[in-house]
């Protein structure tokens, strides 16, 4: 099939490249000419495992092309996926200006050829109605189109894997013709398809992310009770997860969730519910627990060191999770900023995210590697659970540190081994 993708960011580019991998002919469009130039030259604009390899594979063939022109995308694809960003407006609500502007551009380029216009970005419920109205307002008479919702559930760091092995594909549309075309797009994945109303599809995405964020905040709240009550959060969540109604996934306590999606979608869902007439205050508490979690870690470091001013703190990990260079809403960045504010000298290391952090926190000391970060440190805080941190020779780490003091913000280091080496070890949700 011929598919157009408008918006070649994390979602759009991965989706487009993976459609090409599945044999479709894909045109990826972006309004940023520099990004398109880089993509035409074969360079992925962000780090995502497997993406560069698929780009290399399909760029030279005929299945994957790039352009900065929305009219070209409308001419090219029978199905057009809108994958532009839908950020939060400071103070609440979702900024739909990019989505609206792309809808208008599509409308102006529509001809008599039938097109399915698909919301892939995460959007508030009923967005499809606004898209339809907008297109009808700006399109020439006789334009033939339908609107559908097909939310993405890709995890950063696993996005290529998730796109090629989806656990579900939600198609929301009232049009049989649109549904049939989308079924062709996802041929081979019939057992994963769920067809719903367009409003339900929009809400499935927001509700899924808000629920997952709530789960993380719930375990983080329980981790605080563990610290106060003498329990161990990893034992507690293991026991909870054995209940099939709860399940073992997404129960890992840590420094809180980060990334652009959860923060944005929890806020977006709260605001959307309010606009529809329902106060979903639960989500405010989810946010409060999340913000408290990384701050609590900084306070624990300060309490242990008595005074932070002039102390050196090594930070392992800056991205919001392993497998990505994305630092949006990363708890690690918040920890680094707060430690610096309280007078500490932060020596940070991350295998992929340092270039991004240099742009916003240039005053940190950026180390060459994990061991280098630990040099002369009065404390080490593990913020992101990159595999290489788990494989460090901790005897060497101890030898270069000023004080053998470790705060494990993701509960991934081996407590027993560290204690035998002479480290003082603190973790999340363990007294
Ligand atoms: C999330 C969803 O998982 C995807 O399904 C969705 O498509 C995506 O948002 C999106 O809306 O685009 P992502 O933000 O990539 O994906 O990251 P997750 O793997 O879900 O992790 C989010 C955060 O929660 C990370 O900071 C992670 O460290 C934290 N987390 C996750 C925990 O603290 N504990 C857990 O048990 C799981």
Task: Supply database-style keywords.
single chain, 431 residues, alpha/beta, six-stranded parallel beta sheet, 14 strands, binds uridine-5'-diphosphate-glucuronic acid
Short synopsis of the structure:
This protein has 431 residues and is of the alpha/beta class.
Number of helices: 18
**What radius of gyration results from the CA coordinates?**
24 Å
Gross geometry: elongated
Low-confidence stretches: none
Helix content: 40-55%
Strand runs, count: 14
The fraction of residues in strands falls at 5-15%
Strand order of the largest sheet: 3-2-1-4-5-6
Alpha-carbon distance between the termini?
57 Å
Ligands bound here? uridine-5'-diphosphate-glucuronic acid
Regarding quaternary structure, what we see is single chain
Give the mean pLDDT: 96
Structural class, by secondary structure, is: alpha/beta
Instruction: Note the main sheet.
Output: 6 strands, parallel
Write up this protein.
With 431 residues, the protein is of the alpha/beta class. Helix content is 46%, strand content 14%. A 6-stranded parallel sheet has the order 3-2-1-4-5-6, sandwiched between helices. A 6-stranded parallel sheet has the order 11-10-9-12-13-14, sandwiched between helices. Strands 7-8 form a two-stranded parallel sheet. The radius of gyration is 24 Å and the shape is elongated. The termini are far apart. Uridine-5'-diphosphate-glucuronic acid binds next to helix 9 and helix 11.
């Amino acid at each position: 099939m011929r598919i157009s993708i408008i918006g070649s960011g994390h979602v759009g580019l991965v989706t487009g490249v993976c459609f090409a991998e599945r044999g479709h002919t894909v045109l990826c469009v972006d309004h940023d000419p520099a990004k398109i130039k880089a993509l035409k030259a074969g360079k992925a604009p962000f780090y995502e495992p497997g993406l560069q390899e698929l780009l290399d594979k399909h760029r030279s063939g005929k299945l994957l092309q790039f352009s900065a022109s929305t009219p070209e995308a409308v001419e090219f694809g029978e199905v057009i996926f809108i994958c532009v960003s839908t950020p939060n407006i400071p103070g609440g609500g979702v900024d739909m200006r990019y989505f609206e502007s792309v809808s208008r551009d599509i409308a102006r380029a529509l001809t008599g050829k039938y097109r399915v216009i698909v919301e892939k970005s995460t959007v508030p419920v009923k967005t499809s109605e606004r898209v339809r109205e907008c297109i009808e307002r700006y399109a020439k008479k006789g334009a033939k189109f339908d609107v559908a919702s097909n939310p993405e559930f890709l995890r950063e760091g696993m996005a290529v894997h998730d796109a090629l092995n989806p656990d579900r594909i939600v198609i929301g549309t009232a049009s049989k013709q649109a549904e049939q075309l989308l079924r062709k797009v996802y041929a081979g994945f019939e057992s994963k398809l769920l067809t719903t109303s367009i409003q339900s599809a929009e809400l499935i995405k927001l509700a899924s992310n808000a629920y997952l964020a709530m789960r993380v905040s719930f375990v983080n709240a329980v981790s605080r009770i563990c610290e106060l009550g003498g329990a161990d959060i990893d034992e507690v969540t293991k026991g909870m997860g054995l209940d099939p109604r709860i399940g073992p996934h997404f129960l890992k306590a840590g420094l809180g969730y980060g990334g652009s999606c959860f923060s944005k979608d929890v806020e977006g869902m709260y605001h959307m519910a309010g606009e529809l007439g329902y106060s979903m205050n639960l989500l405010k508490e989810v946010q409060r627990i999340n913000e408290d979690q990384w701050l609590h870690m900084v306070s624990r470091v300060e309490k242990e060191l008595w005074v932070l001013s002039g102390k050196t703190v090594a930070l392992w990990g800056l991205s919001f999770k392993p497998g990505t260079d994305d630092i949006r809403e990363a708890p690690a960045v918040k920890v680094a900023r707060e430690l610096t504010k309280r007078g500490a000298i932060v020596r940070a290391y991350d295998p992929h995210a340092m270039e991004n952090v240099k742009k916003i926190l240039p005053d940190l000391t950026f180390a060459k590697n994990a061991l280098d970060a630990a040099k002369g440190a009065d404390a080490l805080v593990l913020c992101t659970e990159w595999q290489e941190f788990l494989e460090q020779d901790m005897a060497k780490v101890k030898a270069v540190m000023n004080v053998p003091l470790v705060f494990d913000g993701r509960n991934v280091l081996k407590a027993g081994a560290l204690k035998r080496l002479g480290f003082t070890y603190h973790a999340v949700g363990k007294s």
